[in-house]
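Incident review: delayed structure delivery

Summary: a single-chain prediction request sat in the queue longer than the usual turnaround. Root cause was a stuck worker, restarted by the on-call engineer. No data loss occurred. The affected request and its eventual output are reproduced below so the record is complete for anyone auditing the incident later.

Affected input:
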Amino acid sequence: MALIVQKYGGTSVANIQRIRNVAERVAKFKMLGHQVVVVLSAMSGETNRLIALAREIQAEPDPRELDMLVSTGEQVTIALLAMALKDLGLKARSYTGSQVRILTDNAFTKARILQIDENRIREDLDAGRVVVVAGFQGVDENGNITTLGRGGSDTTGVALAAALKADECQIYTDVDGVYTTDPRIVPQARRLDTITFEEMLEMASLGSKVLQIRSVEFAGKYKVKLRVLSSFEEEGDGTLITFEEEDKSMEQAIISGIAFNRDEAKITVLGVPDTPGVAYQILGPVADANIDVDMIIQNTGANQTTDFTFTVNRNEYNRTMTLLEELKVKIGAREIIGDTSIAKVSIIGVGMRSHVGIASTMFKTLAAENINIRMISTSEIKISVVIDEKYLELAVRVLHKAFDLENGKTGAKFD
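Output delivered after worker restart:
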C-alpha cells in the first residue's frame, strides 16, 4: 500500500464527464489499497472568467479581493469530485486550502507556502477516505485567502506530497509526459521516460509549460518523487522526474530537450557612464518594482560609456520602459530603446557537463539557417540564445534535428 498524491489540471476537470472520469481513475487506485489525496485545479477557463469579471469592476483588481474571488473556482471542482467519488461508493471529503490550513505569506496573487498542517488529512486517510484538496490556494496568518499564482495547483500537490511524505506525486495533465520539445512545433518530439530535477527546473524556467517552476523547486528541495501523466490515457508510465544520482547505471543523454519562450522583450540603456555601480543604478529600481530580469549583457562603448542590455517578460515591457525613462537623467543615459519581437530558445541537458562542442554545434546550426543570435546565456546544463521571434519555430526544428533528439542518441559527436 502506498500514499499517492494526484493533481489534476483544469482540462482534466473541464466538465462533469471528465470529473467522473477522474473519480473512476482515483477509485482504481483506492481499490488497489492505496491511500489517495487528490488536488484539483478549477475547471478549464474558469479562473480567466473570474478575472475578467473582476476587471469589469476594477481595471486593476484589488489583490486581496481578487484572491477571494478566483479561489472559488477550485471550491467547485473539489465538491463535485467528492460527490462523484461518493456516487461510486467511496468515502471522500473535500477541503479548501484554508480548511487544510495551507499557511502562506500574504503576497496576494503570488503567495508562497510556509507550512501545511497535515493532521486532518492523515485522520481522513486513516479512516479510509479519499481526501480532495483545492489547489492554487492557501491562507495567511490573518485568515486571508491567498492564491499561489498561475500553475499553483502543481505546487499545492507537491507541497502536500512533501508534508505527507507521500510515495509519489502524480501530476495529471493534457499531455502524457515531458517531451524533448513541443510536439506541436516538432511532430517528431519524443516523450522522455525520465528527466532529472535539474533539467526539469531549467526547462520549466525557460518556457516549458508542462510543470510550474515552483512545483519543481519544491519537489527537488524535499525529494518528492514526481511523475507527469496524461489524464486522458489509461495506459503509460508518463515521465518520472528523478535525481541524477539515481540514473548512474544509465548513459545520460547529452541533450534532453529544447525549451523556448515567446514572452520575451529586450531593453537597452545606451550611453550610461562606465563607472562602478551603474548596473545597480539600472537594475536596482527594476528589482524594487518586482520586475524579474533574465539575460544581461554589458558592452563598453566609446568615451567611457557603456550600453546595458537585458530581457524581461513581455508583459512587464511597458512598465519597465516607463520606469527607465523616469530614471534616464539620473543614470545619465543617452537613450533607452526596446524590442518586443524577440524570443528565447534553450537547449538543456546534464550531459553537457562532460561533453564539448555543444555550443559550437548550436551556433553553427542556427548560422546555417541565417538566424542571427542577439544574446547568449549559459550554465552548466543549458545554453540559451535570444533570436528574432519570426525564426523561433525554425530554430527549434533545426536544433531538434541537429542534436538527434527524436532518436534519443547518447553518444553523438559534436563539433
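Verification: The chain is about 35% helix and 25% strand.
Action items: add queue-age alerting; document worker restart procedure.
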